[in-house]
Design goal:
This protein is α/β, with parallel strands linked by helices and 575 residues long. The chain folds into two domains: 2-312, ABC transporter transmembrane region fold (Up-down Bundle); 334-574, Rossmann fold (3-Layer(aba) Sandwich), CATH 3.40.50. Helices cover 64% and strands 10% of the residues. It has helices at 2-10, 14-46, 51-99, 103-109, 111-135, 138-153, 158-202, 204-209, 213-266, 271-312, 374-379, 404-409, 425-429, 438-447, 451-456, 474-487, 504-517, 553-559, 561-574, and strands at residues 334-341, 351-358, 363-368, 389-394, 397-398, 411-414, 423-424, 464-465, 492-496, 522-526, 538-543, 546-551. The strands form three sheets. A six-stranded mixed β-sheet has the order 6-9-10-3-11-12. A four-stranded antiparallel β-sheet has the order 2-1-4-5, with no helix packed on it. The longest helix has 54 residues, at 213-266.
Length: 575
C-alpha cells in the first residue's frame, strides 16, 4: 500500500524526482572521489614535498566540495517540494473522499480517526517521501560505490567490510521486525487520544454539569499513558540503532588501523591509501546507516499508508447515479413509498412500512417517542442514508436517481443539533447561499425570530461566532440555523426537532412567520411538543419504526391511541 500511495502521488512531480536523482548522483560521486584525491595528496604531495601539487589538488578538492554542497542543497529543495506537494495532494483527496461519505461511513471510521488519518498519518508518509527522495541515490551509491572504491585501494582489508556490514544489517532487521506491530499500536492509541479529547471538548458543559472532571481526566490519563508506554517501547528500540551503528563503525575503523598499520609497517600499503580506505569504510557504513534510518521510518509510514488507503479505497454508499435526473417534475413534493431502513449488522429494521407524502406548500409533522426513528426517517430525504427497501421521491424523482447537487439545493435541513462555523453571523447565514444580500439575511432572521438579538450584538451581521456557535445560547443557535436554511431558498424545509430550545411564544411566532412568509415551501417538521404540530396539514405518528397514525390533530385524537397518549402526557405537564 505504501509503494502504491507514493507512486500514485509522486508521479505528478516526476521532473522534480529526475532533478533529485541527478543532483544526488553528483553529490554521491563527489563524496566517493574526494578520498582518492586525499590519498594522492598524502602519497604524492606530502611524501615528496611537492607544494605545487598539494595546492593544485587541494584547490580541485575544494571546488568539488563546493559543487557537492550546491548539489545537495538543490536535491534537498527538490525533495522538499515533491514531498510537501504529495502530502498536500493526499490530504486533499482524503478530505474530498470523506466529504462524499454518507453518515454510515463516517460512523464506521469515527470522526477522531478520520482527523488523525488526514493529519498525523499523512505527515508520516510525507516525511518518508522527503527522506526517501533525499537518500534515494546517496545511500546505495555510498554503500556500493564505497565498497568498489575500497577494494580498489586495498583488497587485503576487504574482509573487515564483509564482516561489519552483515552484522549491522542483521541487527537492524531484528529491531525493525519488533517495531512494526508497535507502530500500528501507536497509531491506534493516537486515535483513542484524539477521540477522547474531542469528546471532552465537545461535551465540556455536560462534563462540568455532572462534575465528571476527575473521571474524564482519569480516562484521558489512561489513554495518554497507553500511548506513552508504546512510544517508550518504540524509543527504546530506536535508541539502540545509532549506538549499535557507531559501535560497528568504530570497531571497523580500529580493525582498519590495526591491520592496516601492520601492512604500512611492512611497506605493502602506503599511508594515503590506508587513510582513503578508512574514509571509504566510513562512507560504506554511513550509507548503510542512512538506509537503516529510512528503513526505520518505513514501518510507521506503511501503517499510516494502510490507514490512509482504507479511507481512499472505501466505497461510499452515497453513490452518484450514472445518468442523474436534474429536472424535477413536481418540485417541493416528498413521497415515501413502503420505506424500510436497516443499519449494517442490525438484527431488525429501524424503519419499515413507511408510506406518506407531502404536496408543495404543505406542512407534514412527524411525532413519536424517543428512538422511534424520526431523525432516521428525515435523513432519507436529503439522502444522508439510502433506503434498504422501498423508495423516497423528492420532486417526483427517486432520490437515488436524482442529481445530488440538484437534490441538496432543493432541501433546507435544520439538524437536531444545529452547528455554526467559526466566522461571523453573515458568513454563517451565507453558508446557505453565498450571493445573498444583507437585506435577504435580515429577512431570514426576521422569519426565524433572530433579528432582535442580532441587532443587539456588537457588529450585528458581522458579530463573531466561535467554533460550533458556543458563544451564543442554544435557542439563538437554533434560530440562526433556521435562518441559514431560509437563506438557502429551498423548495423543502426539513426541521429535525429544531424548535426544542425555543420558548412557546417564540416557537409560535416563528411557525406563524414560516407559514405566512413561505407559503410555497414544503415543511417537514419533527417535533416533541404537540403544540408545535397541531396546525400541520398531516401528522405522521411513529412507534418503534412503524407508522401507527396519519392524519390531522383532530383525526389522530380520535383514531390513534399512541398519539392520544403523547397529547395527554404533555397536556398534563403543561397544566
Amino acid at each position: 500500500m505504501l509503494a502504491r500511495l507514493l507512486i500514485r502521488y509522486l508521479k505528478t512531480y516526476r521532473w522534480l524526482l529526475v532533478g533529485i536523482l541527478v543532483f544526488q548522483f553528483a553529490s554521491a560521486m563527489a563524496s566517493l572521489y574526494l578520498p582518492r584525491l586525499n590519498a594522492d595528496i598524502i602519497d604524492q604531495g606530502v611524501a615528496r614535498g611537492d607544494t605545487a601539487y598539494i595546492w593544485s589538488t587541494g584547490s580541485f578538492m575544494l571546488a568539488i566540495s563546493l559543487g557537492q554542497i550546491v548539489a545537495s542543497v538543490i536535491a534537498t529543495y527538490f525533495a522538499a517540494r515533491a514531498a510537501m506537494g504529495a502530502g498536500r495532494d493526499i490530504r486533499r483527496d482524503v478530505y474530498e473522499r470523506v466529504s462524499g461519505f454518507s453518515e454510515r461511513e463516517v460512523s464506521t471510521f469515527g470522526p477522531g480517526s478520520l482527523i488523525t488519518r488526514n493529519t498525523n498519518d499523512v505527515q508520516q508518509v510525507q516525511m518518508l517521501a522527503m527522506m526517501g527522495a533525499t537518500m534515494l541515490v546517496t545511500a546505495p551509491l555510498l554503500a556500493i560505490g564505497g565498497i568498489i572504491m575500497a577494494l580498489q585501494q586495498d583488497v587485503g582489508l576487504s574482509w573487515l567490510i564483509a564482516v561489519s556490514v552483515p552484522v549491522l544489517l542483521v541487527f537492524v532487521a531484528i529491531l525493525i521486525s519488533r517495531m512494526v506491530p508497535l507502530f500500528r499500536s501507536f497509531q491506534t492509541k493516537l486515535d483513542a487520544v484524539n477521540r477522547i479529547m474531542r469528546e471532552q471538548l465537545t461535551g465540556v458543559r455536560v462534563v462540568r454539569a455532572f462534575v465528571r472532571e476527575p473521571i474524564e481526566e482519569e480516562r484521558f490519563r489512561g489513554a495518554n499513558t497507553d500511548i506513552m508506554i508504546v512510544g517508550r517501547k518504540v524509543g527504546s528500540l530506536f535508541v539502540l540503532m545509532f549506538p549499535a551503528a557507531m559501535l560497528v563503525l568504530n570497531l571497523t575503523v580500529i580493525g582498519v588501523i590495526w591491520f592496516g598499520g601492520i601492512q604500512v609497517n611492512a611497506g605493502t600499503v602506503e599511508i594515503g591509501t590506508l587513510f582513503a580506505f578508512m574514509q571509504y569504510v566510513g562512507q560504506i557504513l554511513m550509507g548503510v546507516l542512512m538506509a537503516t534510518f529510512m528503513t526505520i521510518m518505513i514501518p510507521r509510514a506503511a501503517v499510516s499508508a494502510e490507514r490512509i488507503g482504507e479511507v481512499l479505497d472505501s466505497e461510499t454508499t452515497l453513490i452518484r447515479p450514472e445518468n442523474p435526473v436534474s429536472v424535477f417534475d413536481a418540485p417541493g413534493t416528498v413521497q415515501f413509498d413502503g420505506v424500510e431502513f436497516s443499519y449494517p449488522g442490525a438484527e431488525s429494521p429501524v424503519l419499515q412500512g413507511i408510506s406518506f407524502g407531502a404536496a408543495r406548500g404543505e406542512t407534514v409533522a412527524i411525532v413519536g417517542s424517543t428512538g422511534s426513528g424520526k431523525t432516521t426517517l428525515i435523513s432519507l430525504i436529503p439522502r444522508l442514508f439510502d433506503v434498504t427497501g422501498g423508495e423516497v421521491r423528492v420532486g417526483g424523482v427517486d432520490v437515488r436517481r436524482a442529481d445530488l447537487d440538484r437534490l441538496w439545493s432543493s432541501i433546507g435541513l435544520v439538524p437536531q443539533r444545529p452547528f455554526l462555523f467559526t466566522g461571523t453571523i453573515a458568513s454563517n447565514l451565507r453558508f446557505g447561499r453565498e450571493e445573498a444580500t444583507d437585506a435577504e439575511l435580515w429577512h431570514a432572521l426576521e422569519i426565524a425570530q433572530g433579528a432582535d438579538f442580532v441587532r443587539e450584538m456588537d457588529g450585528r451581521l458581522e458579530a463573531r461566532i466561535s467554533q460550533g456557535g458556543t458563544n451564543v445560547s442554544g435557542g439563538q443557535r437554533q434560530r440562526l440555523a433556521i435562518a441559514r436554511a431560509i437563506v438557502h431558498q429551498p423548495d423543502i424545509l426539513v426541521f429535525d426537532d429544531s424548535f426544542s430550545a425555543l420558548d412557546l411564544t417564540t416557537d409560535a411566532r416563528l411557525r406563524q412567520a414560516l407559514w405566512r412568509e413561505l407559503p410555497e415551501v414544503t415543511k417537514i417538521v419533527v417535533a416533541q411538543r404537540i403544540s408545535t404540530v397541531t396546525e400541520a396539514d398531516r401528522i405522521v405518528v411513529l412507534d418503534d419504526g412503524r407508522m401507527v397514525g396519519l392524519g390531522t390533530h383532530e383525526e389522530l385524537l380520535a383514531t390513534s391511541e399512541t398519539y392520544r397518549e403523547i397529547v395527554e402526557s404533555q397536556l398534563g405537564v403543561e397544566a
